[in-house]
Protein 1
Amino acid sequence: MTPLTLQDRYKGVVNPAAVGQRFRLERYAAPPDLAPYIEWYWMVAWDLPPEVVHVQRTLPSPCIQVVFDRGRSATFGVMTGSFEYTLTGKGAVLGARFRPGAFRGFLKGAVQTITNQQLPVSAVFGGDDEEDECSVLDAADAGDDTAMVAAASAIFRRALPAQLDPRIERVAKTMELIRQHPEITQVAQLAERLDTSVRALQALFRDVVGATPKWVIRRNRLLDAADQLANGDDIDLATLAQDLGYYDQAHFTSDFEELVGKPPAHYRNSCKP
């Protein structure tokens, strides 16, 4: 199985230099029948010496994630805060990152109801949690990434919606608009670009995304900032705060530290080789 080529470096991974040093991170395309729903599968594998403990922080995304992790497998609603995972010894985890808006048909209810929550995999896809976890992670133990993805895909097909929700495409276009236009820093600006109302946009996001459009815009801008700082771009922090739509640098610094775990200047220095 050929890993996907990353288009956006390792956005979302705090201190991306750790990739390849402390752990292996791969992304794989979903099979054709699941591709309209799953953005990609991701796999993390590590094999660390006994004295090494690595804590990896990951930034949130407006996506539902189904994660197969020994003894901790779950469906995760949109998590609005960062997530830390401690790597020790040897192990592997497989996750499926569902496209924003695409999980509504599997959940059969408003996605906002599981924001910042986690459910057993069986609560959405049926089956036996222990057996399903073993079917995926036993393949990991054998070093077979293709088999891991195939096992997870079989689980997801149990609840495959009968038809594709047209709102998935609407959400995809909205997310791309946010990504491609950093000058959009307010929900009203986004609504105007989409020729809709702020209220309609908020209702759509509550039902099928699970995060507010305001949160998605701010998260994207902070992710862009973290990516630039991690990769050594020469940025004036006051100018960056202004470009992101912040009233002043202090508010930007506070939000950045809450998300990433360090103030912008400290984070930039920590990512230097």
Protein 2
Amino acid sequence: MRILIANDDGYLAPGLAALAEACRGLGEIDVIAPEQNASGTSNALTLNRPLTVYEAVGVQQAGFRYVNGTPSDSVHVALTGLLPHRPDLVVSGINQGANMGDDTLYSGTVAAAMEGYLFGVPAIAFSQAEKGWTHLDAAARVARAVIESVLPLLKPGQPPAVPWLLNVNIPNRPDAAQLPWVTTRLGRRHASSPVIQQTNPRGEPIYWIGPAGDAREAGPGTDFHAVANGQVSITPLQVDLTDHAALPGWQAQLSRVGRL
């Protein structure tokens, strides 16, 4: 089994080292991650400059490689030229902070996994619900268990007929490995807080993006509800953004104006 590991917190992040350690013994591991924290970069690819891949140094990062680009860059470069083989699974994380509801549209953690999915490789994104890396060892045990649970679905060296993408959010608890798993759908957040305006030393206005909004749709069945109730949330994701239910209405509208 060949597993590619990436993240969006950067190659020095404790969550990446924890995920790599959790995958030890499951197969041939490659770790290729961004050079710097790239949270919130979504599926961005770097097209205006060349990318460079470096070998990491350090006890926890021994054998890691890092790219001076985005999370999607890391996986894209790995899959389209850097690796001599195609991985059987792409895993991303363990992220510092939740990626639930609308967060998944912005998340670099989810994007790194999604880049593998777009190339037909099954993929999993792992996140802790809160920042701070508390009980990271327990979250790593959850990640190991989830990966082990899907290995029977994979045939080494044989791409699946239909790839899949899972988004996993883990409560920051010492007993995380004993918590139940639930399959969930994405909840929704309220709109984010207003930008924070400040002034730079030259007297020019600058703006910081405000905090994410609170959960708006967080009832039973959502990822927000699961994590709030001490469960590991596992959400299957897809890339198709088409509003299929709205297609007939738009077809009728455009027919009325003579454009169909």
